[in-house]
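FORM 7B: Structural annotation worksheet

SECTION A. Query
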Amino acid sequence: MMKKLLSGLVALTGVAAVYAEEAAEINSGDTAWLLVATALVMLMIPGVGFFYGGMVRAKNVLSTIMLVFATLALVSVQWVLFGYSLAFGSDISGFIGGLDYLGLKGVGMEPSGTIPHLLFMMFQGMFAIITVALVAGGIVERMKFSTWLIFALLWATLVYSPIAHWVWGGGWLGELGALDFAGGTVVHINSGISALALALVLGARKGFGSVSMEPHNIPMTVLGAVLLWFGWFGFNAGSALAADGIAALAFVNTNTATAAAALTWMLLSWRHRAPSVLGIATGAVAGLVAITPAAGFVTPLASIAIGIGAGIVCYYALLFRMKRNIDESLDVWAVHGMGGTWGAIATGIFASVGATGLLAGNPSQVVTQLVGVVATWIYAFAVTYVIAKVLDATLGLRVSEEEEDVGLDIAQHGERAYA
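SECTION B. Predicted structure
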C-alpha cells in the first residue's frame, strides 16, 4: 500500500512539474497586456462604424454602422471555425495554411510564445474582423446588406486569410523577408485595394457628382477617429506580443506619426480652403495606417517623416480619386490603400530597430517591400473583383433605385437613426 502511495505521489509530482514548466513559459505580464490590446483592437471596430457613419447621409447612417457591426459577429465565428486555421495553420506551398486548427482543434491554453495560444488566436481574429469592416467604406449607401454578408464571408476566407498567411503565418512573403509589424499589407493595402475593386463593380451612387452627399455628422466621424487612435495603441503596440521595449516603441511611434499626419492634412486643407475638421480626423487615420507596418522597426524621428508622408500621399490620392470621378465612397483606397502602400515602402527606407532598411545600409529591403506591395495589390484586387462579379451575377450587389432614394436605413433595416 505504501509503495503504491509513494508511486502515486511521484507520478503526481511529475505531472505537476510538467504543468509548472508549461506555466512558466506563459508570462503573466505579456498575457495581461495582450488581453488589453485585444480589447483595444475590438474597440476600433465600432470606431470604424462611427467614423464611416458620420460621413454618410442621415438616411444611411444605421445601414453603415450595421455593415460594420454585423461583420464583427460574422467574422468572429468564421475565424474560430476555419479562418484562423487558413491563416496560421501548417504552411501549404507558401500560400495558405492547412486545416490543423479547424474549429480551434489544438488551440488551447498552451503557450504560443509567452502568451496562451487562444489569446494569440483572438488577437489575430480582431485584425481579420477590422480588415473586412474597412472594406465596407467603399460601398456604403448602395449595397444590399444580404449580399454584403456573403461577400464578407467569402472575402475573409479567400483574400484575408491567404495574405495573412503570406506575411505572418509562415508563407512566402514572410520567408522573403518582408517587414509588416502590424498589418500595412495584410490589413490596409488589402482592404483599400479591395474596396476600390468592389466599388468599381458596384458602380457610383445615384446622383454622384450632381447631388450633395455631404457628411451628415462630422462630430460622429471625429469620435470614430478618436476611438481608432485610442484602439490603435493595442493594434500596433500589441503586435509586439509582449509587454516590452518594442511595445513601448510601437506605442510612441503610433502616436507621433498620427499627430504628424493630422497636422500635415490640416495644413494642406488650410492651404486649399480652410483647416478642415473632417480633414484633420482623416489625416490622423492616414497616419495610423502608414505607421502600422513600421511601428516596431523605426525610431520616433522616423515616425514623424512617415506621418508627414502619409498626410501628403493620402491627401493627394483623395484629390486624384475625386478628379477621376470614382465613387469609392469613403476613400478607403486613398487612406488605407495608399497609406498602407506608403507605410510599407517607408518601412523599407527607415527600418533601423530589429531590421535594417535603406537608410541603415540595406537598400534590398525596399525591393522586398515593393514585392509585397505589388503582390498584395494584384491578388486583393483580382480576387475581390471576381468575387464581386460572381455575386453581382447571382445575388445582385445593389439595392433598387427606389431603395437608394428612400435610404438604406428604412429600405434594408426598417429603422431610422433620428426621429
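SECTION C. Observations
Confidence is low (pLDDT under 50) at residues 1-24. The first helix runs from residue 2 to 25.

SECTION D. Sign-off
Analyst initials: ____
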